[in-house]
Write a structure and sequence with these properties.
The chain is built from seven helices and 23 strands. It is of the alpha+beta class. The strands form five sheets. Strands 1, 2, 3, 4, 5, 6 and 7 form a seven-stranded antiparallel sheet that branches. Strands 11-8-15-14 form a four-stranded antiparallel sheet, with no helix packed on it. α3 crosses α4. The chain is extended.
Length: 570
């Protein structure tokens, strides 16, 4: 009897196990089919679909969305025809680069030319291609290229002392992106009228210099001067927006040539909390600014001695040749006299981020290297005002970019924004060929209140007051003292007669009043650009040099434009 009971229980248990296993397999099969359907759906997603599902800042750093296509076939064909390309390109490069080398030839050299130039036996490798633009006007594509070259390049260098030096350029390592423009599209083969090529982005350019039969380091300064000359020649001859035009079908292709499209004015206002590069004392900061890093296109500010919070308030104007791709770069250095200056930090602003005809006022954090975005060290900040004004910008007033008179872009904007000088007689201006406009007027400043000011007294309070002054004049005003308050209310108005509004600055310094002394609490430094444009506005300004605190101000401008000779001091 027990045997039959055990047998029945065993059969029941076996059937139960079989049923459970079958159900488990069915469930696993269903999950696998669901997962396969999900994977199939993901495989059909485009890059745009994935970006809709997950914001870009949530992707891990190793996720890259590439728009490039591989060019293995092109590299194979280029390797085959490279000997012929070498012969043709060597003469072309020599003819086009030699005049540029002569243009940037250092003064220590009497002559600089190629005695031999071949590109070697190693063909460059194209690692990817992307289509930037494709429409009825033409096609724009970019090719990324790596080239570890073994060229035979010898420069004949003659110094002012009459010494001839044959210098070999060797071990060239290059990585960059070339832009090709096929325009205009035509009905005749090969279906485009001309092709333009340019070095869109130079990621790496390394090379070594060697005096044949000698040591280049034995002659101080020669190596550095020659390296700078070669890099400037590359920058000026082929780097975007400079482009080389090769006509394929005879025609007029002047519209493809490099032409200025507008002007950019940068107002270098100030910097704060700069890194100290000196062991004794403080850094002596100055700034360089450029759109294209060429010696004749780079601007330099004055040096502010022994100051980590320098105030420059200087204007610089640049010619813009391609607002969609160009950027303005600002680098701040510590001036070490005859020694090489130490880089404190740099920033870059893309021109496409600027609204034409509008002043952009920004504080930007300095970084060590523009190519490395993960710089967490605090190097300070720089304050800029930027204005991009295209030449073809339409306005109710005549085009202010006439050459008959000298005005900065900001001055042109002020005179065309209806701030009291909108009725300027431009024919009168053009008759004064060397005149500039001064923006003279009365600046009314109302110090409304302060908020969350730092506590300077033992009781956790302060007795704050504000000292107001213009940087270029001696006029000063002072508010009344508000006792025992971190949120004082003043509501006091002060009028300044401003002789040159575009080039002056308003300074407000907050102090804690004590019986026999005063404690510095912080300051606000304002350019007058915004009030010149808007005429009347209110805003809150954080205190510099304080952990907390801000001032609430109301500013009003009553303008009166006058003229002065451009040779007079601003």
């Amino acid at each position: 009897m027990g045997f039959w009971i055990g047998l029945a229980m065993g059969v029941a248990a076996g059937v139960a196990l079989i049923v459970a296993f079958a159900r488990c397999e069915n469930s696993r099969g269903a999950r696998r089919r669901q997962l396969a359907a999900t994977v199939a759906a993901f495989s059909k997603m485009t890059v745009e679909d994935s970006r809709k599902l997950l914001p870009g800042d949530l992707y891990p750093s190793w996720v890259v969305f590439s728009t490039q296509q591989k060019l293995k076939w092109l590299n194979q064909e280029l390797t085959k025809i490279w000997p012929f390309v070498n012969d043709a390109a060597s003469e072309l490069i020599k003819a086009s680069v030699e005049p540029v080398l002569e243009q940037y030839r250092p003064v220590v050299f009497a002559a600089l030319k190629f005695s031999k130039l071949t590109l070697g036996t190693v063909a460059p490798q194209f690692t990817g291609i992307s289509i930037i633009e494709s429409n009825e006007d033409g096609i724009v594509m970019e090719l990324e290229m790596n080239w570890d070259a073994n060229p035979s390049i010898i420069l004949d260098v003659k110094t002012r002392l009459g010494v001839a030096l044959p210098i070999q350029v060797k071990d060239i390592g290059f990585t960059g992106v070339f832009r090709l423009i096929f325009r205009p599209l035509v009905e005749d083969l090969p279906c485009f009228g001309a092709v333009c090529f340019s070095l869109r982005k130079k990621k790496k350019l390394d090379f070594k210099l060697k005096v044949i039969g000698g040591d280049i380091s034995a002659i101080p300064g020669i190596s550095a001067a020659l390296e700078d000359t070669i890099k400037n020649a590359v920058e000026d001859s082929i780097t975007w927006p400079v482009r080389k035009i090769i006509p394929i079908i005879p025609g007029d292709y002047s519209d493809l040539e490099l032409k200025p499209v507008g002007t950019l004015e940068v107002k270098l206002v100030q910097a704060r909390d700069l890194t100290n590069k000196d062991l004794i004392g403080k850094s002596d900061p100055f700034a360089t600014l450029y759109i294209r890093p060429l010696p004749d296109k780079t601007k330099r500010s004055k040096t502010i001695s022994n100051d980590l919070n320098p105030i420059w308030n200087e204007h610089f104007e640049f010619i813009v040749e391609d607002a969609d791709t160009q950027s303005v770069t600002v680098k701040i250095y510590d001036d070490d006299g005859i020694q090489e200056s130490d880089l404190i930090g740099c920033v870059q602003v893309s021109l496409k981020d600027l609204q034409p005809g509008k002043v952009k006022d920004v504080w930007l954090k300095l970084v060590k290297d523009l190519e490395i975005q993960r710089d967490r060290k605090d190097r300070g900040q720089v304050h800029l005002e930027l204005l991009y004004y295209p030449y073809n910008m339409k306005d109710e007033t005549p085009n202010p970019f006439k050459q008959q008179f000298s005005m900065t872009s900001l001055e042109r904007t002020m005179t065309s924004n209806g701030n009291g000088s909108g009725s300027t007689d431009y024919s009168r201006l053009s008759s004064r060929k060397r005149k500039e406009i001064i923006l003279r007027g009365v600046l009314s400043v109302t110090v409304v209140s302060g908020e969350d000011l730092p506590a300077m007294d033992m009781n956790g309070k302060s007795d704050p007051y504000v000292v107001l002054s213009l940087k270029k004049t001696k006029t000063k005003y002072k508010t009344r003292v508000v006792t025992e308050s971190l949120n004082p209310v003043w509501n006091q108005t002060f009028d300044f007669v401003v002789e040159d509004g575009l080039h002056d600055m308003l300074m407000l310094e907050v102090y804690d009043h004590d019986t026999f002394s005063r404690d510095y609490m912080g300051r606000c430094i304002l350019t007058l650009t915004k009030v010149l444009i808007e005429e009347d506005y209110s805003d809150s300004f954080p205190l510099e040099g304080a952990k907390t605190g801000k001032l609430n101000l109301h500013l009003k401008w009553s303008p009166q434009s006058i003229f002065r000779d451009s040779g007079e001091a601003a």
